[in-house]
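Hi D.,

Good news: the full-assembly prediction came through. Inputs first.
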Amino acid sequence: MDRRDFVKLGAAISGTLVAARAAGQALPSQARPLPAKPGPFPGGQVRVVTPNGATLPMKEKDGLKIGHLVAMPVDHTFAPGLEGACWGYNGRVHGPTIEVVEGDRARFYVTNRLPEPTTVHWHGIILPNGMDGVAGLTQRPIMPRETHMYEFTFDKPGTFMYHPHFDEMTQMALGMVGMIVVHPKKPKGPRVDRDFALITHEWAIRAGMRRPDPNEMKDFNVLTFNAKAFPGTEPLVVGKGERVRIRLGNLSAMDHHPIHLHGLSFEVVGTDGGDIPVSARVPETTVLVPTGSVRVIEFVPTESGDWAMHCHMTHHIMNQMGHGMGVIVGANAAKIDARVQQLVPGYMTMGHTGMGDMAEMKMPAPKNSIPMVGGKGPFSSIDMGGMFTILKVRDNPESEDGSGWYSHPKGSVADKADAAMMQADGVDPDVKF
Amino acid sequence: MNLSRKAQYILPLAVALVTGCSSSTVATDVRDVNAFLAAQGRNIGQRPGAGSAISMPTEDAWENDGAEAPRILAKPLTADDAVKLALVQNRELRASMYELGIARGQAVQAGLLPNPEIEISLRAPQDPFQRLQADIGFEYDLSALILVPLRKGVADAELEATRVRVARDVLETAFQARLAFYDVQARQAVLDLQKRAFDAFQAGYAAAEELHRVGNLPDADLAIHRAAVEASRIDVAEAENALLDARERFNVAAGLSGQQVTWTIAGPLPPPEDMPVDAVVTEKKAITASLELAEIGRRMEAAAKRVGLHRTQGVMPHVSGGFHGEQDGISWELGGHVTVGLPIFDRAQGRIISAKSELGALRERYVAAAIGVRSSARMTQNRIESAGKRARHYQQALLPAREKALAETLLQYNAMHVSVFQVLDVQRRVTETGIAYTETLLDYWKARASLDQILAGGARPRALGAVSTGHTSSAGMDVGSGAGH
Ligand SMILES: [Cu+2]
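Then the structure:
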């Protein structure tokens, strides 16, 4: 397969993804592309996979790569049950990942189908000042129905992002962001087998609304990887012993996200400023991705299984959680229910024993909302949502599409303790303190 | 007016002689008033098209047939029951009947012929040879006799006027009983709703207490909920008192006392009817039917006749005549005489001035009353339309919207966007709207009863009162405005 063929294949895959999204099929098992093979990039590097996302198709003409970004309103599904009236690029939220090679000269046409002007800023790319996309400072805004042209050379390899720099508060809050991957001509370090791009983002969508609130400053209740909240997030399938790279970008309005991976430790190998020297790398299990920044991590998993990967801010792994309810934990619900139900028949006090069971309660919710909804797990419901996904480490990743659960070797799952064994080990469950 | 005029002018003296001493029991008056109301086709105190006219019971029925009231009171009361009770029991109405008797007595009295006077005198002469001498004189006041038909005419006109006034009393009594009953229905509904609001505050306090107990609520919040409960308790007490007051007003209107005051009501005020009424027709009908105008008309008639009576009296010489017989011991000497008082000085000028002025005053009152009746008809009409529209809006738009807001707020609660306290707040708004609806409904039914009253010829609806402005509460955007998380 030569480069030209790959570009065609990428376009085909993108098209499939768009169709899947239009049909509202965002379940992990249905939206996943085929596992990547080592790609056609210099040094035999694999192409980047954008879970729940796509790669921007680019034409090549006389050594110039040509891409087209269309800024436009998009109806987007965050997870089954939650639709958003968003803005994005090329019919999707977020925009497609731009994937090029160091030294590529590219021309981007940007068409504005928004009701207000826009621009594109190429976050982290070093380019001529007039191509930087800051409305007023370096260019005229792209007016509605206009198409502007950007042209520059990707001189430096690395991971970058793009987003508007006109009314960025609104346009980014409504979803207009995307990733840029510039592969090095001559890769350094060990060969990478899997390469993923994930953008973290946060949204304010009150239960029953469709439009994310761009004015919100602190109450964000939909937290996403690549604009999907769990259980809408597509898992990352990797092979045991494979070298995996994850590029994490953050264009959230207000929050940094400490992204934590289970079952392994990793090293932060780069930022949107460039590679981190090998001597400066430290083992981590959590990487803080600041707003407006990229962190690239690499690891080699040694344990097979379904491993959680999530933001470690506990409110960021809830779906559309509200906090107007007050603290109920510990209360005797019967005392409250008896009186309130006489007046409001459908009422039921909840949260008095904690919130863990709420995902399974199936309380009637406002339309277009997924409060307290988690995902289905192999043992019980997973009472998490939001910025949560699953790293699936498999012995034979090529045969997995990510929809199946890991089957544990016998005796390797924590379970109810044997009473006789407890006694023998001197463990008294009724111990007093 | 035709009734009495005919009766007056063809009334011959002889008839007066015969019937003058007939019985004047209240039963007759009741019969007359009922006949009058029936002749006018007035459905007093009945919903239009609700069937036959209610009539006053006779005095015998009042005193002897005591079964009617207990029969009505045995079951929960409707508004029509309320009217029936009032007609059976209201003592003021009975007093009016006796007042009608007073007028009737005066009419009877006025129709009586003057009594003849006979004078007998005996003389015992001192002369022993002369016999006892006797005089017999017969004297009759001819002027009074001639004036009887005129006096009778005046009294009959007054009696007619009084009969119309009593008919008005009957309508008014029925109307007041109906209004008092509507008020009881409204006050009962408001009390029930205030209790529901109280339940909501109590539920809020119970939740607050429980959350406070387990350390989830500060003292300040608990105290605020407690204060709300205690304030609501006063609202309930006020509503209770308003209901008791309304019941007492009805007891008075329906003449109930003793064991009778334990009645219950059959249900709340019904929703408004969709009954368009033509304002022009209403105004015309109101004028035609008005008993107030009819009464003034009859009083004017009486005043006019009184002017005639006094004029005749003034110009007519006072004539009395008689026969005279004298027995001088041997024979009777018979003779006659006529006395004529010359109308030189007293020609009843003063009484004529008074009577003319009375007529003038009544004529002005008549016009004033007609203006009042037309205005009342329009006002009632407007009130029915406005209150009806508002009541229907409450029933068909605002109440369902509040219910929907409650259902949606409950969903927001499920989404943890609002607390149980906000759910109860929205629930109370449904209750508040129910109270405002009830007040508007009462306005509507009062206006409806007033229109019936006006079209039956009853008094102007003083009881309509000021337009009630229900507490519709502001939109309620304060709930759940905070975004989630
Ligand atoms: Cu986070």
